[in-house]
Amino acid sequence: MGSVSQENAYDKVDEASAKIVGEAQLKKYTSFMDGYAHNLSNLEEAVGGKQHVVWEKSLCPVILKTSPEERISLPNLIRTDNQILNKVLITLSSLCMEVNTLAEEAWKDFYDPLMFYGEGVNEDEEEQVGGDSQVQIGRMLPLFQRLTCFLQRCREVLKNTVQQLAALHNKTMPKVIDATHVHFTVVYEHIGKLLRCLITIDTAVSSNAFLQAHWSQYKLMLKQVGHNPSNFDVDAGKLKPLDKLVTRFENSIIKCKLLQTCLNQNFDDSGIPVSKNSYFAEEFTYNLKVLFSQLDPRIGDQSETNHRLKYVGLCSLLVLQHRLFHSFDKKVFRQVWDISKKLPCVCLVGHVTWFPDEFLGQNMPAKSRAVDQRMLDQAAQNRSNWLNNKVQNISRECQQQHVAVSNWSARMLSGPPQNKSLGDLETKLKTFMEGIWLTCGMRHTVETMTNLHAQSNKPMTKNEVLALCRMMALSKAVTDGFHRGSMLAAESGQHIVQFLQYQILLVLQAAKKRAVAEKKYSDRRLDILSGLVLAESCAKGSPTLQRIAVAKLALSVANQSKIIRDDEYMGILMKLERLQIIGACGVWAYSKRASDQSSFYWHRSLFTTYLDGLCSDPSEAARLSYMFDVLEDITSRLLRCKHLASPQQLVQTYRDEMNGYVRQNLLDVICKEIENDLRLSVHTHLKLDDRNPFRVGVKSLRQLLAIEPLKFQGSFLDIKAYVTHYLDQTFYNLTTVALHDWKTYGEMRNLAAQKYQLEMQEVHLPNQQLEQGLDVLEIMRNIHVFVSKYLYNLNNQIFVERSSNNKHLNTINIRHIANSIRTHGTGIMNTTVNFTFQFLKKKFYIFSQFLFDEHIKSRLVKDIRDFRENRESLNQLYPYDRADKFNRGIRKLGLSADGSSYLDQFRLLISHIGNAMGYIRMVRSGGLHCCSNAIRFVPDVEDIVNFEELANADNISPEVNSAFTHIDAVIGSLAKNSAEGSDYLRMLVSVFAPEFRSSKNMHLRNFYVIIPALTINFVEHVISCKEKMNKKNKVGAAFTDDGFAIGLAYILKLVDQYSEFDSLHWFQSVRRKYEADVKSQQQPAQKQGKGAEDEKLLQTKALALKRIGIYQREFDLLYYSLSSARIFFRADLTAKEEAEEKGDKKPDEAEAQSATDGTSTDPTPAN
Asked: Compositional bias of type Polar residues: which residue ranges (predicted)?
């Protein structure tokens, strides 16, 4: 007693110590969590709230796992007062658990290595590298050895299970328990599960052509090595065991005989009658009927989960029944066969597809006549019809699934936050199950259709591919909904488990009361009560797979006298099924397994079609993340391959292939479309294409750019960042190639930021052109080309290129001339004037030749005489008709190759002369601009300080005085040039005027009369050029040509005929002529009054008035330009008045003389 009390005291001390230590650890943990939360808050503030949120569901840092874990042995779990029943249930439960273990092993270790054999190997490389196929088979041999051991275990488990059942249902042997009305359907279900695993392995091996071909090469290699082992440095004694092992592998695995090996074994070797046990045969048939009744209403129904796989097990049980008893129930067989009409095939795993008609036709003996050729043909036709019907309705089914998933998501995320009543639990249970059913249904549809297309070699349409991809994304959306509501599911899941257990216990307690109420004692009643107690005990514990299996077995014993009504029994089975989903597996884990789309790996080429459809219709962009979840499903399974040196090789190959698809079919397409859209938007003025959104539609690519970064195979894919980098790189490269396009790419960059919210980088290139335009020296040397290729604008004082093959027209303005003068010095200005003088000499020679021509001169003399004789009658106005007649009549003298008349060429000659004079004007302005820029740092130009005088006053050294003298001279010269400059126009007038006005060039005095005809010709030409500006073919288009006006003003000054031209009153005559034309067009409308004219006549008159207005406006513009140009040449003074005003020779004339000394020749045109 003392020792006991002392031990109790020690226990109390230990308990108190443990409590103190626990409190200390709790404080440390609380302090750690507070610090961790503070650090997270600081990190969030530093990063900001706009960081990309990449939600990776497979790598959750914190997750609540709700699946139960229980370590209890079956003897401890199955403990009732009925010892015999305990042994029976322990035996059957152990067999069921062993089947589950074997199925899990097959899933983890065998399915994937057999399916993926041959993947990740390039066929071309395989042909080049000899022996690679044999090496791959060699890597598979350990797996085949394990698979052989697995097959042996399956044979033993199957044999033991069948014999155990035969021993229970046997009339010749002593009864263990009274199993007359006990139906262990769950055991038969597990037998079907075991056989299904063998079927899956056989089908995977038979469908792998690489494995079959490489195995043949490996056997051939072994034969070659066996003939000459010394050549291969191989011990001959080790070849025989290897050859036996290979033969063993081939007979069972390569020849797909796993199922046959299990079924063809001797089940009667233990002394327990099996094949001749009629009672067991009847029980076998009864359980087949029960399994069929449970599967038939669920297959194809919206509540289907894994019932398709159970159907495979049911068919394998039919084959097993025939192998055991050499007979079968034709009615049951017909019912099972009819299921194939609504279930054409079953996708066992990945692309491994199982066809019920082929399986039953191959495994049911021909003697039984269970399957004939007509049935096989009909099944193939039904399969084809099912696929065609599914293809036609897939779009509508996809839309229905979309609506269902949307409704489910709304209910899932907006359900009651707390479980306040049983009604809330029932609602959440229904919501959870609907999500599971939706996921399973969509996965079955996708797998069945894709695998059927692959097996039948039927192509898929684009709409079908897009619909199937959409369904895969929807299944992932359901899993996403479970993940987002994982905390709610974890909390509610436990309540739902307790709720289901409560409902099961209610039924069991009611059945128990009915069993206790029977006062008649019997062994059967004892078994029933024991079964109810055991089922109740299992229902009270955690919902593990082991407890659920034991509960089903216990219910099979308890329900032998129908003490539980059929509806209650089916209700218990349904609740146990839901307990397995929600309790044993967990809602989120089960939904992940149900939405597993790893079979898409075998049809991954369809992903390109999906990406093409996504680019065509970006409205589905939000589901792209779900499609990447689909691609990610296969990753963990790729790591199980055994034929490669490293599984990472297959993963890398898959990653590169998918990234290539994404880059080629999505990213590059988006980049090109966005770039084209930006280009078209910036160049809308070119009117290239119809961009009306109501006619051509709008493609909202912003939805693709708004996708958050996607994670795939350990790397991130940011579409927005990829497009931004592409545009930055493209704009930078193109800007460096063509610097003159910097502004265009700048606009595209700004538009990308505004329209697509792209954060573009600055290119850090010069934001303006570095070239200074055409150099003065280049223009001077090619003045004849310059005046013909460029057009002058009088008001803006700029030259514009007439036409160009480039995107832009070059321009020359004062700034370009000033840059050249600053580069070459002011001395270039005199040289430019000299070159222009030489050019004008040649042009005036042609000018004189034209006016001296007898045809021209006679017409001009005639026009002068006629005007002088009729001056009074014409009201001092030169008649427009006579000038127009001269313009048209001169065409009779002949046309050039391009269709221009002599008057057109004469007008062009005057324009060239005017362009040369405009260039001289621009050179003078450029010189003034250059001098002004150079002297802008002098504080006061009007009061310039003399540095030399200041230096002399302060007695500064002679060297400094000399420097001051030079700077005074430079500043004085700049001040003089910037204030006055040289009047080069007057210089060129004074050089040519004497010869033009001399008596030997009297034919030049007729020039003023040809001006009216020239102006008409010029106006027609200008109108034609401006009309071409709005046409697609802009050859010959122009909007300015003031060189003609300057040329007229200059020549009139040379011949001193301003007064003679003014006496014609030409522009007044033109104005009166067009006013009369307007009145003539309006006059008939006034006479006829109210709408007497028809619509066509009104349209004609409107067009005529518009045309008259255009001509009148162009004549006015020419008049204004000519009046402005006359100011340059002092048009207000005659030659006599200018001579009187000069008096003495001015400095400008001296400069003109010096500019022409040594290079000028007689400018008199030859007669």
From this structure: 1153-1167
The widest CA-to-CA distance across the chain, in whole angstroms, is: 163
Nearest-angstrom CA–CA distance, 1162 and 1167: 13
pTM above 0.90, yes or no: no
Contacts of residue 248, Cβ cutoff 8 Å, sequence gap at least 6:
148
Three-state SS at 740: helix
| pLDDT at residue 981, as a whole number | 55
The runs of H, that is alpha helices, within 683-765 are 693-696, 702-705, 719-737, 742-756
Element (H, E) at 354: strand 352-354
3-state secondary structure 822-858: HHHCCHHHHHHHHHHHHHHHHHHHHHHHHHHCHHHHH
Given this model, what pLDDT does residue 1132 score? 58
Task: State how far the Cα of 307 lies from the Cα of 311, in Å rounded to an integer.
Answer: 6
Phi-psi region of 167 (alpha: psi -120 to 50; beta: other; left: phi over 0): alpha
For residue 870, give both structure tokens. Answer: 């009729």
Inter-CA distances, 139 with 65, 136, 217, 249, 256, Å: 37, 5, 14, 14, 20
DSSP summary character for residue 253? I
What residues have CB less than 8 Å from 809, skipping those under 6 apart?
800, 801, 803
CA angle at 388 for the pair 383 and 390, rounded to the nearest 5°: 95
The single residue listed with the structure tokens 């030749």 is: 849
| Helices and strands (DSSP H and E) totals, the chain | 48, 7
Q: What's the token pair of residue 567?
A: 């509806």
Q: Which residues in the chain come in under a pLDDT of 50?
A: 1-10, 50-55, 125-128, 769, 1086-1090, 1092, 1144-1167
In the chain, the amino acid numbered 363 is N
Res 1143: pLDDT: 56
Per DSSP, what are the bridge partners of residue 353?
Answer: 347
In the chain, domain spans: 7-47, 384-595, 604-756, 776-1082+1101-1136
Torsion of CA 875, 880, 882, 886, to 10 degrees: 150
Tokens of 928: 């003034």
Cα separation, 539 vs 757, whole angstroms = 58
Q: Beta strand 352-354 with 346-349: parallel, antiparallel or unpaired?
A: antiparallel
